[in-house]
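Action item from last week, closing it out:
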Amino acid sequence: MKHSWFKSWQANFWAGLVIIFPAVISIAVVVWLFGTVANITDTLLFFLPRKLTHKGQGDGPMYWYWSLVALALAVFLVALVGRAARNYFGKKIIEWVDATLLRVPLLSKLYGAIKQVNEALSLSNKTAFRTVVLVPFPHPECYSIGFITNEQLDEFRARTERRVVCVFVPTTPNPTSGFLVLVPEENVIRLSLPVADAVKYIISLGSITPEYAPASPLTQGQTPAPVPTPGP
Protein backbone atom coordinates (compact mmCIF):
# COMPACT_ATOMS: atom_id res chain seq x y z
CA MET A 1 0.00 0.00 0.00
CA LYS A 2 2.76 2.43 0.90
CA HIS A 3 4.67 1.59 -2.25
CA SER A 4 1.55 2.09 -4.37
CA TRP A 5 0.79 5.40 -2.63
CA PHE A 6 4.34 6.62 -3.24
CA LYS A 7 4.24 5.73 -6.95
CA SER A 8 0.90 7.51 -7.30
CA TRP A 9 2.25 10.60 -5.50
CA GLN A 10 5.38 10.55 -7.69
CA ALA A 11 3.30 10.35 -10.88
CA ASN A 12 1.14 13.25 -9.69
CA PHE A 13 4.23 15.30 -8.86
CA TRP A 14 5.78 14.86 -12.30
CA ALA A 15 2.46 15.58 -14.01
CA GLY A 16 2.09 18.77 -11.97
CA LEU A 17 5.65 19.77 -12.68
CA VAL A 18 5.10 19.44 -16.43
CA ILE A 19 2.09 21.77 -16.14
CA ILE A 20 3.66 24.33 -13.80
CA PHE A 21 7.21 24.44 -15.20
CA PRO A 22 6.45 26.48 -18.38
CA ALA A 23 4.48 29.06 -16.38
CA VAL A 24 7.18 29.39 -13.71
CA ILE A 25 9.93 29.79 -16.31
CA SER A 26 7.89 32.32 -18.29
CA ILE A 27 7.17 34.42 -15.20
CA ALA A 28 10.81 34.21 -14.10
CA VAL A 29 12.01 35.41 -17.52
CA VAL A 30 9.54 38.31 -17.52
CA VAL A 31 10.58 39.35 -13.99
CA TRP A 32 14.27 39.12 -14.95
CA LEU A 33 13.74 41.19 -18.09
CA PHE A 34 11.75 43.80 -16.19
CA GLY A 35 14.44 44.05 -13.52
CA THR A 36 17.21 44.31 -16.11
CA VAL A 37 15.44 47.00 -18.12
CA ALA A 38 14.39 48.83 -14.97
CA ASN A 39 18.02 49.24 -13.94
CA ILE A 40 18.39 51.47 -17.01
CA THR A 41 14.99 53.15 -17.28
CA ASP A 42 14.75 54.02 -13.57
CA THR A 43 17.37 56.72 -14.12
CA LEU A 44 14.87 58.62 -16.29
CA LEU A 45 13.05 59.70 -13.11
CA PHE A 46 16.07 61.55 -11.76
CA PHE A 47 14.03 64.78 -11.59
CA LEU A 48 11.70 63.32 -8.93
CA PRO A 49 12.67 63.28 -5.24
CA ARG A 50 14.05 59.90 -4.11
CA LYS A 51 11.84 59.96 -1.00
CA LEU A 52 8.85 59.76 -3.34
CA THR A 53 10.09 57.07 -5.71
CA HIS A 54 12.28 54.90 -3.45
CA LYS A 55 11.68 52.83 -0.36
CA GLY A 56 13.25 53.62 3.00
CA GLN A 57 12.85 57.38 2.65
CA GLY A 58 14.97 57.36 -0.52
CA ASP A 59 17.68 54.93 0.59
CA GLY A 60 16.06 51.71 -0.66
CA PRO A 61 15.16 50.37 -4.10
CA MET A 62 12.61 52.08 -6.31
CA TYR A 63 8.96 51.15 -5.91
CA TRP A 64 7.85 48.77 -8.65
CA TYR A 65 5.04 51.08 -9.81
CA TRP A 66 7.50 53.92 -10.31
CA SER A 67 9.64 51.52 -12.34
CA LEU A 68 6.59 50.96 -14.54
CA VAL A 69 6.25 54.72 -14.94
CA ALA A 70 9.92 54.95 -15.92
CA LEU A 71 9.47 52.13 -18.45
CA ALA A 72 6.44 53.86 -19.97
CA LEU A 73 8.45 57.09 -20.18
CA ALA A 74 11.27 55.23 -21.96
CA VAL A 75 8.81 53.78 -24.49
CA PHE A 76 7.40 57.26 -25.09
CA LEU A 77 10.85 58.76 -25.62
CA VAL A 78 11.85 56.01 -28.07
CA ALA A 79 8.64 56.59 -30.04
CA LEU A 80 9.34 60.33 -29.96
CA VAL A 81 12.81 59.78 -31.46
CA GLY A 82 11.28 57.55 -34.13
CA ARG A 83 8.73 60.25 -34.93
CA ALA A 84 11.45 62.90 -35.12
CA ALA A 85 13.44 60.74 -37.54
CA ARG A 86 10.62 61.03 -40.06
CA ASN A 87 10.96 64.76 -40.63
CA TYR A 88 13.78 66.84 -42.06
CA PHE A 89 14.92 68.63 -38.90
CA GLY A 90 14.76 65.47 -36.83
CA LYS A 91 16.93 63.62 -39.35
CA LYS A 92 19.49 66.42 -39.28
CA ILE A 93 19.65 66.36 -35.47
CA ILE A 94 20.07 62.59 -35.43
CA GLU A 95 22.79 62.79 -38.08
CA TRP A 96 24.59 65.46 -36.03
CA VAL A 97 24.43 63.34 -32.85
CA ASP A 98 25.59 60.29 -34.80
CA ALA A 99 28.55 62.16 -36.29
CA THR A 100 29.47 63.60 -32.88
CA LEU A 101 29.54 60.17 -31.23
CA LEU A 102 31.69 58.81 -34.04
CA ARG A 103 34.30 61.53 -33.34
CA VAL A 104 34.69 60.77 -29.63
CA PRO A 105 37.85 58.71 -28.99
CA LEU A 106 37.26 55.14 -27.77
CA LEU A 107 33.49 55.68 -27.75
CA SER A 108 33.53 55.93 -31.53
CA LYS A 109 34.87 52.37 -31.88
CA LEU A 110 32.23 50.90 -29.59
CA TYR A 111 29.39 52.99 -30.99
CA GLY A 112 30.42 52.26 -34.58
CA ALA A 113 30.53 48.50 -33.97
CA ILE A 114 27.13 48.47 -32.24
CA LYS A 115 25.65 50.62 -35.01
CA GLN A 116 26.89 48.19 -37.68
CA VAL A 117 25.45 45.20 -35.82
CA ASN A 118 22.14 47.00 -35.37
CA GLU A 119 21.97 47.82 -39.07
CA ALA A 120 22.83 44.22 -39.97
CA LEU A 121 19.97 42.89 -37.83
CA SER A 122 17.46 45.56 -38.79
CA LEU A 123 14.39 44.93 -40.90
CA SER A 124 16.14 46.53 -43.88
CA ASN A 125 18.43 43.52 -44.08
CA LYS A 126 16.39 40.90 -45.94
CA THR A 127 18.74 37.96 -45.33
CA ALA A 128 20.07 38.24 -41.76
CA PHE A 129 18.42 35.67 -39.49
CA ARG A 130 15.68 35.04 -42.06
CA THR A 131 16.79 31.58 -43.22
CA VAL A 132 17.18 28.47 -41.06
CA VAL A 133 19.80 25.98 -42.24
CA LEU A 134 21.62 22.80 -41.31
CA VAL A 135 25.41 22.85 -41.47
CA PRO A 136 28.03 20.13 -40.79
CA PHE A 137 29.25 21.39 -37.42
CA PRO A 138 31.30 20.75 -35.28
CA HIS A 139 32.48 17.92 -37.54
CA PRO A 140 31.36 16.56 -40.93
CA GLU A 141 29.53 13.56 -39.43
CA CYS A 142 26.85 15.60 -37.61
CA TYR A 143 24.63 18.59 -38.30
CA SER A 144 23.84 21.73 -36.31
CA ILE A 145 20.96 24.12 -36.82
CA GLY A 146 21.93 27.69 -37.70
CA PHE A 147 20.82 30.96 -39.26
CA ILE A 148 22.26 32.64 -42.34
CA THR A 149 23.47 36.11 -41.37
CA ASN A 150 25.31 37.22 -44.49
CA GLU A 151 25.84 35.99 -48.04
CA GLN A 152 27.85 38.94 -49.37
CA LEU A 153 31.37 37.69 -48.63
CA ASP A 154 33.35 38.74 -51.68
CA GLU A 155 36.84 38.67 -50.14
CA PHE A 156 36.29 35.30 -48.47
CA ARG A 157 35.11 33.84 -51.75
CA ALA A 158 38.10 35.31 -53.57
CA ARG A 159 40.53 33.91 -51.01
CA THR A 160 38.98 30.44 -50.74
CA GLU A 161 37.84 30.27 -54.38
CA ARG A 162 34.54 28.90 -53.10
CA ARG A 163 31.11 30.44 -52.58
CA VAL A 164 30.71 30.60 -48.80
CA VAL A 165 27.94 31.92 -46.57
CA CYS A 166 28.06 33.21 -43.01
CA VAL A 167 26.08 31.06 -40.56
CA PHE A 168 25.44 31.68 -36.87
CA VAL A 169 25.17 28.40 -34.93
CA PRO A 170 23.51 29.15 -31.55
CA THR A 171 24.14 27.22 -28.34
CA THR A 172 21.39 25.53 -26.36
CA PRO A 173 19.44 26.35 -24.24
CA ASN A 174 20.80 29.91 -24.52
CA PRO A 175 20.59 30.93 -28.20
CA THR A 176 22.09 34.38 -27.59
CA SER A 177 25.60 32.90 -27.71
CA GLY A 178 27.05 30.60 -30.31
CA PHE A 179 29.58 30.17 -33.11
CA LEU A 180 30.14 32.05 -36.33
CA VAL A 181 31.10 29.67 -39.15
CA LEU A 182 31.78 30.20 -42.83
CA VAL A 183 30.36 27.27 -44.76
CA PRO A 184 30.59 26.46 -48.48
CA GLU A 185 27.17 27.00 -49.97
CA GLU A 186 26.97 23.45 -51.31
CA ASN A 187 27.24 22.16 -47.72
CA VAL A 188 24.39 24.33 -46.45
CA ILE A 189 20.97 22.66 -46.25
CA ARG A 190 18.27 25.33 -46.32
CA LEU A 191 15.11 24.55 -44.35
CA SER A 192 11.55 25.78 -44.68
CA LEU A 193 11.40 25.95 -40.87
CA PRO A 194 10.27 29.36 -39.52
CA VAL A 195 12.82 31.19 -37.39
CA ALA A 196 10.50 31.23 -34.35
CA ASP A 197 10.09 27.44 -34.48
CA ALA A 198 13.84 26.98 -34.82
CA VAL A 199 14.46 29.13 -31.74
CA LYS A 200 11.90 27.11 -29.76
CA TYR A 201 13.60 23.91 -30.90
CA ILE A 202 16.97 25.20 -29.66
CA ILE A 203 15.70 26.51 -26.31
CA SER A 204 13.84 23.24 -25.60
CA LEU A 205 17.01 21.18 -26.14
CA GLY A 206 15.36 19.59 -29.16
CA SER A 207 12.32 18.32 -27.26
CA ILE A 208 9.85 20.53 -29.20
CA THR A 209 9.82 18.97 -32.66
CA PRO A 210 8.85 21.42 -35.40
CA GLU A 211 6.02 20.41 -37.70
CA TYR A 212 7.08 19.30 -41.15
CA ALA A 213 4.83 19.58 -44.19
CA PRO A 214 6.46 17.77 -47.14
CA ALA A 215 5.98 19.09 -50.61
CA SER A 216 2.63 18.04 -52.00
CA PRO A 217 2.70 15.44 -54.81
CA LEU A 218 1.85 16.44 -58.34
CA THR A 219 -1.85 16.93 -58.81
CA GLN A 220 -3.68 14.82 -61.33
CA GLY A 221 -2.94 15.90 -64.86
CA GLN A 222 0.07 17.99 -63.83
CA THR A 223 3.36 17.05 -65.45
CA PRO A 224 6.78 17.70 -63.95
CA ALA A 225 9.04 20.33 -65.46
CA PRO A 226 11.31 18.94 -68.19
CA VAL A 227 14.84 18.13 -67.19
CA PRO A 228 17.37 19.99 -69.37
CA THR A 229 19.70 17.75 -71.30
CA PRO A 230 23.41 18.51 -71.32
CA GLY A 231 24.79 20.10 -74.43
CA PRO A 232 27.32 18.38 -76.71
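Closing note: The beta strands are 132-135, 144-150, 164-170, 178-184, 189-190.
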